[in-house]
Amino acid sequence: MRVVVEADGGSRGNPGPAGYGAAVFAHDGSLLAERAEGIGVATNNVAEYQGLIAGLTAARELGATEVAVRMDSKLVVEQMSGRWQVKHEALKPLAATARELAAGFDEVTYTWIPRARNAHADRLANEAMDTQAGRPARQPAPVDTTAPARWTGATGTPTRLLLLRHGQTALSGERRYSGRGDVPLTELGSQQAKAAGTRLARTDFTAVISSPLGRARQTAAAVASASGRAVEVHEGLVETDFGDWERLTFTEAAERDPELHRRWLGDPSVAPPNGESFDAVHARVRAARDELLQRHAGQTVVLVSHVTPIKSLLRMGLDAGPSLLFRLHLDLASLSIVEFYPDGNASVRLVNDTSHLP
Known about the structure:
Helix content is 37%, strand content 22%. It is an alpha/beta fold.
C-alpha cells in the first residue's frame, strides 16, 4: 500500500515551545491517520524531524509499503534525501531514527512543498502547541458569509480550473469504453466544441490545456480559436487506459470478464485487463494538478479532458472518496469548475453544466 505523509513542526521562539503534526493520506486523498504532540522547548528543525518520525511511524502502523513524504522543511527533505549532511548534534539521533523507520518500507521519497500546501500538518502542529500551552485550539478568523468562495475560510487567490469534457465521438455516442483509442469528434461533437468555445470566449482565462488525445485536442482547438489562444498539451490529462475493454459496452465487458468487472466497479485499485486502475489515474491526475497549480498559480485555466480525469479533479476539490467516480455523471462537452487555494482549501463552483449546448 502506498501512502502520502505530510509532516510539519514549529517552535514559538526557536528555540521555544514546540510541537509537531503529521497526517497520512491514501492515494485517493482520504485521511488515514493524524499525529500531533507538544514536545516542550525545542527548535523548529527538531520539531520538523519529530513530525517526520511520527508520520513514518503512523504509516508503518497502517501497513504501508511505499511512502511519499511531503514537507515544507527544505533542511529535512535534503538531509533525508542524502543531499545534505546532518551537522547539528541535536538532529543526528533524530535523522538516524527517521532513516531506520524509512528502511522498513520498500520505498520512501521526499518532496519539498510550499508551506501553503502543507496546511493540514501545520494546523496539527499549531494545535499541539496551543494544547501544550493550555490554550484552546486556534479558531479560523471570521469570514464574510456573503461571499461563497470564503465559506470554508480559504485564503489567497485561487487557481480556477475550467474543466471541459470533449465533444461527442462515435464511441461515446454508442456508450462504449473509450480510453486511449484516438477517435475523432463526430459532426455533433464538433458543434458541441464550437458552442463551448463561444461560451468560454466570454471568460477571462490565461491558457487552454488539453489531453493529448485527438477528441480532446479538437475540442480544445475550438475553445482556443474562439479566444485567440494556442493549445498546450499535458499527458497527465489523458483518459483511463481501459485495456482489453476498449470499445466494448458495459454489458460486453461484464460478460467478457464478469468477476474482474464486478471487482473493478467496487475497488479503484483493480485495473481492466492490460489497462489502468482508477487509483493510478487519480495519482497521475493529482501530479498533473500539482504541476499546473504551481505553473498557473492564481490564474484561470481551461483544461479539456475526459470523464475520469475531470471526476478526479472534482474529487480533489470535494475531498471525496472514489465512490464519486460512479455516482457523478458528466455529459459530453459539459463544463465544471473547481478552485484550488494556496492554503490547501478548494471550492467546487460548477458541475456538469451544458447550458451552452444547442
